[in-house]
Every structure is written in structure tokens, then in C-alpha cells.
């Protein structure tokens, strides 16, 4: 099928495009700049110029495609205002893409994060939280899933806190970059809180499976590592960078502080059974050994 992808130059998007093309699909990807056009062309993707704020561009590209994977999310979220703006842009983009596919039966794959459930692993059947700094993303996904009743084969892939490749990406990547800037491999809270993780290439395989086979209205967990202790992540980062490891104030991590301090393990077992998805790439702790000083 011919697939329209937004967010195709990021860690996840790059892997998704490679996965789709290796499975015989063709890809058109959204490109904001000449540099993005070049990067996407190198991956074998066609391109359409624009950003996720260009709703007419999104509508036309979705209409011309056999399916859509929505991954774009602005990376300027170092402040609460920036995060709020990124969520608003994503919401408008997903709404536009979904409306373009109404009554077509075409697949739309949207993305959110895994939820957290006190005292146990979060499951695919658990609801997304409707409060907190990223509650707007949950509302976007829930609205998209409602399109299952309007002739869209929509599904949602929930990503864990770290989607990684080559020692970088996700919340663990923020720990690394914060350590480089501050001179301390810091962790919020006690460090005993657990974060789930998945390698980008494994996540990409799940996006392809959802695009090809997921029933309308279904939700999946791209979770390979159910929960690494944050202190253990910081220990590897500190060793790789030659920096001391210590607890730091939660607000070191800006608008994500409440999430960073939360214990939030998750399971992808039901997803693996139902879709035949099998993670095969390195775990997060192993991949962090690729962090370079």
C-alpha cells in the first residue's frame, strides 16, 4: 500500500519508513525543510512539503494515500507553554488526517504514551490518564479511536517512555543530555521508579503490523522492556560519560517532572500474542552502552 507518514525524520519515523519499505510498501512523508527532503529521499520516500500545522497539505496527502501513520510531534517542549502548543498542533493534525479517511476503510495509526497504574504493569486495556501535563494527547487519541465508528480502520500504538536507538532517544536520552549539560548523571525521585522501553526498530515493526492488520478501534503497547529502574539507567549513563550519579530535583526535567518521578511499568504481552509482534533488538540498558563521552 501507499502510506503517508508524518514525523518521518525522527528516531521512530526513520525506523518506521525503513520497516514499511522493507515490507514492500511505498511511502510519502511530510517534510518541513530542504534538509528533511534530502533525508527522506535517502530513505526512498517521496515527500510533500509542509508541517503538521499545514492542515490542507495533510488533508490532501491523506486523501491520496492508502493508509496513514501519524508520528509528528513538535520537539520544542522545554517549557509548559511549548508542550501545550505541541499537543494542540498534534490534535489538529490528527483530527484532519482522520476526517480525510472517514468512510474509506483505510487504516490510520496514531500514537500516545503508555499509561501508568499504581502497583502493577499498565495493560493495553487500561485507559489513558485524562489529567497531567500530557492529558491532551490522550484526548487526541481517544477522539481518533472514535473514528472506528465512521469507517476508518484506526488503531493506536502506545509508546513507552523511551524509544531508543544507538544509545539515544526518549526519556533516557533526556537523562543523558541533562547529564552532559549539568555534569551529573542525575535521576528524579528515589530512582526506584521504573520506565518501560522499546528499541525504535521493534516499535517500527509494530506500527507496520498495526497498519496492515489491526482491527478498527484497537490499542497496542510497543513495550519490550517492562520497567527499568531510573537509577540503573543513570548508572550506565554516568559510567559512559565519566560523571557522578546522584538524585537531582524533579524540576530539573521541566514540564515532564511529574512523569519522570512516577513509577510506570507497562506490559506488551497481549500485543505480542495478538499481532505476533516479537521484539528482537537490544534492551535499553544494553543500548545505553552506546552512549559516547
TrEMBL record:
One example of the protein's molecular function in GO is: aldehyde dehydrogenase (NAD+) activity
Any one Pfam family here would be Epimerase
Q: Which InterPro entries match?
A: Epimerase_deHydtase (IPR001509), NAD(P)-bd_dom_sf (IPR036291), NAD(P)-dependent_oxidoreduct (IPR051783)
The GO cellular component terms are: cytoplasm
Where does the record place the NAD-dependent epimerase/dehydratase domain? 3-214
Return the Gene3D superfamilies for the record. NAD(P)-binding Rossmann-like Domain (3.40.50.720)
Source organism, top-level taxon? Bacteria
Q: What name does this protein carry?
A: NAD-dependent epimerase/dehydratase family protein
Amino acid at each position: 500500500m501507499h502510506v503517508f507518514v508524518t514525523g518521518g525524520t525522527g528516531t521512530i519515523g526513520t525506523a518506521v519508513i525503513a520497516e514499511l519499505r522493507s515490507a514492500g510498501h511505498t511511502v510519502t512523508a511530510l517534510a518541513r525543510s530542504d534538509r528533511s527532503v534530502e533525508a527522506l529521499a535517502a530513505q526512498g520516500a517521496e515527500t510533500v512539503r509542509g508541517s503538521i500545522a499545514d492542515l490542507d497539505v495533510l488533508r490532501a496527502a491523506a486523501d491520496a494515500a492508502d493508509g496513514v501513520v501519524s508520528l509528528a510531534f513538535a520537539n520544542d517542549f522545554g517549557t509548559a507553554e511549548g508542550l501545550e502548543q505541541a499537543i494542540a498542533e498534534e490534535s489538529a493534525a490528527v483530527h484532519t488526517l482522520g476526517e480525510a479517511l472517514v468512510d474509506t476503510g483505510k487504516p490510520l495509526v496514531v500514537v500516545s504514551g503508555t499509561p501508568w497504574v499504581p502497583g502493577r504493569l499498565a495493560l493495553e486495556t487500561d485507559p489513558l490518564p485524562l489529567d497531567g501535563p500530557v492529558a491532551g494527547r490522550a484526548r487526541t487519541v481517544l477522539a481518533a479511536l472514535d473514528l472506528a465508528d465512521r469507517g476508518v480502520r484506526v488503531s493506536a500504538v502506545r509508546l513507552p517512555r523511551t524509544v531508543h536507538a544507538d544509545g539515544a532517544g526518549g526519556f533516557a536520552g533526556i537523562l543523558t543530555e541533562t547529564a552532559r549539560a549539568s555534569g551529573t548523571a542525575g535521576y528524579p525521585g528515589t530512582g526506584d521508579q521504573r520506565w518501560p522501553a522499546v528499541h525504535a526498530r521493534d516499535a517500527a515493526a509494530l506500527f507496520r503490523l498495526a497498519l496492515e492488520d489491526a482491527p478498527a478501534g484497537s490499542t497496542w503497547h510497543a513495550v519490550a522492556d517492562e520497567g527499568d529502574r531510573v537509577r540503573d539507567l543513570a548508572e550506565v549513563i554516568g559510567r559512559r560519560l565519566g560523571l557522578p550519579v546522584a538524585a537531582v530535583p524533579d524540576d530539573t526535567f521541566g514540564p515532564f517532572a511529574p512523569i519522570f518521578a512516577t513509577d510506570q511499568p507497562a506490559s506488551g504481552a497481549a500485543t505480542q500474542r495478538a499481532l505476533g509482534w516479537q521484539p528482537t533488538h537490544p534492551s535499553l540498558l544494553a543500548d545505553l552502552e552506546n552512549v559516547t563521552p
